[in-house]
Amino acid sequence: MDITFKTEEGRFNYRVCAVIINKDKLLAMKDVNTKYFYLPGGRVMFHETAEEAILREVKEELEVDGEIIRPLWINQGFFTEDFSNEKYHELCIYFLVDVSKTKILSLGDKFTLVEGEKIHSFQWLPFIELTNEYLYPLFIKKRIFNLPISLELITEKE
């Protein structure tokens, strides 16, 4: 069971995301229901650690076994989702994940993978172009240039 619940005031999510980097490019994704980019990852399941969740999500979405380098950020996000217009209170842990020993780098700058009935479009976005991209969460656009050595807490209200 995913750790998410809906209330009269909106939805709470506990998520994890993978920050995957190759040569000053960030791997981001979209699906058919969104016009914006976001990072690979998903909801943490009940009784699952954040580390287990991110490795599971990388396997499900990218079809590879990633390797966690370190946690980067815990983001407390308060936002209204662009597609559904639903209000969210989200807690997300971002992990720096290595996939360099997998097939991912050979798939090109843009590629599509299928997860069950979901079709995911992936793209390597150059850091220097992130400010022009429709990418969430917004803090990634600036913080990607200086990754923290230890875990940082970020609060983002959109």
Task: Walk me through the structure.
By secondary structure, the protein is mainly β. It contains two helices and nine strands; from the N terminus they run E-E-E-E-H-E-E-E-E-H-E. The strands form two sheets. Strands 1, 2, 4, 5, 6 and 9 form a six-stranded mixed beta sheet that branches. Strands 3-8-7 form a three-stranded antiparallel beta sheet, with helices on one face. It is globular, with a radius of gyration of 15 Å. The two termini are 28 Å apart. The model has no long low-confidence stretch (mean pLDDT 96).
Q: State the shape.
A: globular
- Low-confidence blocks of residues: none
Mean pLDDT over the residues: 96
Give the helix/strand class: mainly beta
Q: What's the multimeric state?
A: single chain
Question: What's the Cα radius of gyration?
Answer: 15 Å
Q: Bin the helical content.
A: 10-25%
Report how far apart the termini are. 28 Å
Strand content: 35-45%
Q: Which sequence of SSEs, written as H and E, runs from N to C?
A: EEEEHEEEEHE
Number of helical segments with 4 or more residues: 2
Overall strand count: 9
Largest sheet: 6 strands, mixed
Give the structure's gist in a few sentences.
The protein has 158 residues and is mostly beta strands.
List keywords for this structure.
single chain, 158 residues, mainly beta, six-stranded mixed sheet, three-stranded antiparallel sheet, 9 strands, globular
Topology:
Blueprint: E1 4-7, E2 10-19, E3 25-31, E4 41-43, H1 50-62, E5 67-80, E6 87-98, E7 110-115, E8 118-126, H2 140-143, E9 152-157
Parallel strand pairs: 2-6, 5-9
Antiparallel strand pairs: 1-2, 2-4, 3-8, 5-6, 7-8
